[in-house]
Input
Amino acid sequence: MSFQRFDISPNPAGENKRPRFSAFRFASFSSVSRRPSQAPPAYSPDDTLATRNQLHVKVLHWMRIAIASITFLVSIVILACSASALRTYTNTRYHAEWILPLWPSTVDLRPTHALLASGVILAVASIFYLVAALAPTPLRSTRPLNLTFTILAFLALFITIFTTVFANTINTRLSNSTQAGTLASWTCKWQGFGSATPGRFAEICAMSTAALDLVILMIVIESISVLLAGWGWWIGAKVRKEAAVEGKGEVTQV
Output
């Protein structure tokens, strides 16, 4: 800005004279403009929503990993119990003709075979998902991983329900028979007889019962897997919608 000159010298009469100020030249003042403030950008709820969805994707991812790991461990225990009971039966079913037989004339091994098959299927399915979810494969993108987990969850749930119903039906039907039985129904009849119980019958009963109980437990676990599958499709739809709006590609699991 600029100012006009003014005179403050005394007048000839010796009297002080009020100085004369000129008007400000506001044109020069107006030419100086203030810089815009550097305030942070406005709060965007879309950014927070995207961050929240990404957090949900991570939580869902690790929950599925935990479910698959638990399924694998339980399936290994089912296999171990069923195989141990079957091996013990194989080692004790041969006997001399003059010795009283330990086993009935007909032993139905279908429940034990069903437990073995379910254990194998659950173990293979859980390993397949763990590889698909953790290895750098095309299946790690949201949609293929959701589809893989959904198929495996429903397959595991069907297998566990079928095995439970199938094994319990046969065990119940043969529980009162004296001519036939399963490994569980025949050996568990001897519970409570103490030293009169034939050798290793208590072990076979415990192993067969544990395997069947674990399959029942797997129904609960696989039901949770089905719920996680549904949650995954819901989150995947939201993430893909936001990615489409922002012009991004397919979201991958982290």
Notes: Residues 21-47, 250-254 have pLDDT under 50 and may be disordered.
